[in-house]
Amino acid sequence: MVTDELKKELEGIYFALGRSLSAETAAKALGVSEKEIIEASEELSKEYENEDRGIRLVRYEDSFQMCTARDIYPSLIKIAKQPKKAVLTNALLETLSIVAYRQPVTKSAIAKIRGVNSDHSVNKLVEYELIEEVGRMDAPGRPILFGTTEEFLRVFGIESLSSLPLLSDEQIAEFKKEATEEAEKETIDI
């Protein structure tokens, strides 16, 4: 059973921390179960939403973070000034999609799928903290494996990678057809 005291502690921690906190870490620190942390956090989240408060408690996988409610953004921007947003070009979005759906994935695998060198795109996505190094492949040269970050989930407003839309066989076939036509067009233009 979730206590008001636990919700009060979590509220203060989420507010002060300013970043996400995993249920596991919170449970260890507060001496309660992960289930209790998740239940208390979800109750807090519902309370903020039901009371139409200016803050929200957002869940990312098994982590939670206190954030400003979306409808407050216009006022917040007037005071805090809008932070510079990363511009995601088509090349960056294409690369990010490959990482999201194929992770963990190497730069060479991304380049093979895209048909062009993707070093710049991968480096930009790492700089924007949308992807990160998640390990190394057990192969000659031990290439770096990349995966998406919690920031990726935050930016795209999804709770977990399982929330990514699935592509139908027809969509995949259409994408392949478009890619083939585009590749043929580029070959002719050269």
The quaternary state of the protein chains shown equals single chain
Q: How much of the polypeptide forms β-strand, as a percent range?
A: 5-15%
The strand line-up of the biggest sheet is 1-3-2
**Low-pLDDT runs:** none
Q: Note the overall shape.
A: elongated
Taking all Cα atoms into account, the compactness measure Rg is 21 Å
Main sheet record: 3 strands, antiparallel
State the helical fraction.
55-70%
Number of helices: 9
Distance between the termini: 68 Å
Average pLDDT, rounded to a whole number, is 86
Elements, N to C (H/E): HEHHEEHHHHEEHH
Helix/strand structural class: alpha+beta
Number of strands: 5
Overview of the molecule:
With 190 residues, this protein is α+β, with helices and mostly antiparallel strands. It has helices spanning 4-17, 23-30, 34-50, 73-80, 90-102, 107-114, 119-127, 150-156, 169-189; strands spanning 21-22, 55-60, 63-68, 131-136, 144-148. A hairpin with a 7-residue loop joins strand 4 and strand 5. Helix 5 packs across helix 7 (119-127). The model has no long low-confidence stretch (mean pLDDT 86).
Keywords:
190 residues; alpha+beta; 3-stranded antiparallel sheet; two-stranded antiparallel ribbon; 9 helices; 13% strand; elongated
What is the secondary structure topology, with strand pairs?
Blueprint: H1 4-17, E1 21-22, H2 23-30, H3 34-50, E2 55-60, E3 63-68, H4 73-80, H5 90-102, H6 107-114, H7 119-127, E4 131-136, E5 144-148, H8 150-156, H9 169-189
Antiparallel strand pairs: 1-3, 2-3, 4-5
